[in-house]
Amino acid sequence: MAFTNRVFSGIKPSGDLHLGNYLGAIRRFVPLQQQYECIYCVVDMHAITVWQDPADLRRRTYEIAAAYIAAGVDPKNHIIFNQSQVAEHAELAWVFNCVARMGWMARMTQFKDKAGKNSENVSLGLFAYPSLMAADILLYKATHVPVGEDQKQHLELARDIAAKFNHDFAPSIAANGYGEEFFPQPEPVITGPATRVMSLRDGTKKMSKSESGSDMATIYLMDDADTITRKIKKAKTDADALPSEAKGLENRAEAANLVGIYAALSDRSVEAVLAEFGGQGFGTFKPALAELAVSVLGPQAAEMRRLVADPGEIEAILRQGADRARELAARTMTEVHDIVGFIR
Ligand code: ATP
Ligand code: MG
């Protein structure tokens, strides 16, 4: 069966949005609208896999919706909503909890990283997280998922869940007239530079909402121009000049990170950036990067501030988005009920 090309992606309101979320996800959401029907979600149910203060959760949910809109996601022709408004996400996730295997979840590096030595004390939700993520995507039979590099493994798991569901229920899928393949195999869309933005203080650590280490390590989307400039100028680097070719960035994690950020912010390739800056030191490159970052992030933050100042507009967008998402989700769940053998 041919699936309609559809994009799904989401961000958790688990902390303040940062440059990694912007370059790895939000900014990439925008051009996909030309080619696909897009569903962009604020995944609040994923956020509570670790403790969230309710007031912060609400504020951050608005903030992420505002970030989508400010970046250029069109809520009229596409869908923006928050996950918990569409109960079918939890419902399909339960079915997937019964399809996925414990061993699959136990192999997830994100779980191992986030649980650390504390794995007996983290929530059950944190362990089952990839199963809910598979439900988010497959509820809409989405075919393409723009994410940062760190989500690649979860997406492979979503593909495994889809394949196992299709296989285990094959006779029932056919008997109900739902074709041969019920769920598509969703493809990750991980392209371009800066698919994994690293901490400004440690080129081996991913920039993250939940574990920033030090404030100087992370550029937040709501940082003002002075703060962005200060963080970039203080970013850890080596003492060498920039190379003229990408190969010269091997084993220079911090340099590679800054060049990748420059490339992504200017919609150019790493090669093009090095062709311009090769041979120059960070004394020249950092101010150029700071200026570029401020020119891109400044207007984005200003528009986000305008939107969150009057949440009425965002509330309406989320409500309408949820209504449209629910319609699609309910259709899939009806079919899943038939396939699994739930009476409706
Ligand atoms: P948390 O620390 O709570 O997991 P996070 O910063 O990793 O937060 P998520 O909500 O887990 O953010 O991820 C949202 C999107 O941002 C995903 O597509 C993810 O791949 C992307 N993303 C997160 N961090 C980075 C990063 N450092 N570089 C590129 N993309 C990133
Ligand atoms: Mg994450």
From TrEMBL:
Please cite one Gene Ontology biological process associated with this protein. Answer: tryptophanyl-tRNA aminoacylation
| Motif 'KMSKS' region: where in chain | 206-210
> Record's PANTHER family?
TRYPTOPHAN--TRNA LIGASE, MITOCHONDRIAL
A Pfam family that this protein carries is tRNA-synt_1b
GO CC field:
cytosol
State what protein this is by name. Answer: Tryptophan--tRNA ligase
The text of the family note is: Belongs to the class-I aminoacyl-tRNA synthetase family.
List the subcellular locations.
Cytoplasm
The protein's annotated catalytic reaction(s) are:
tRNA(Trp) + L-tryptophan + ATP = L-tryptophyl-tRNA(Trp) + AMP + diphosphate + H(+)
Q: Which molecular function GO terms apply here?
A: ATP binding; tryptophan-tRNA ligase activity
Q: What does the function comment of this entry state? A: Catalyzes the attachment of tryptophan to tRNA(Trp).
User: Which CDD domains would you find in this protein's record?
Assistant: TrpRS_core
UniProt enzyme class: ligase
Using the UniProt record, give the first listed, main subcellular location. Answer: cytoplasm
Signal peptide coordinates: none
Per UniProt, the keywords (alphabetical) are: Aminoacyl-tRNA synthetase, ATP-binding, Cytoplasm, Ligase, Nucleotide-binding, Protein biosynthesis
Q: Origin, by domain of life?
A: Bacteria
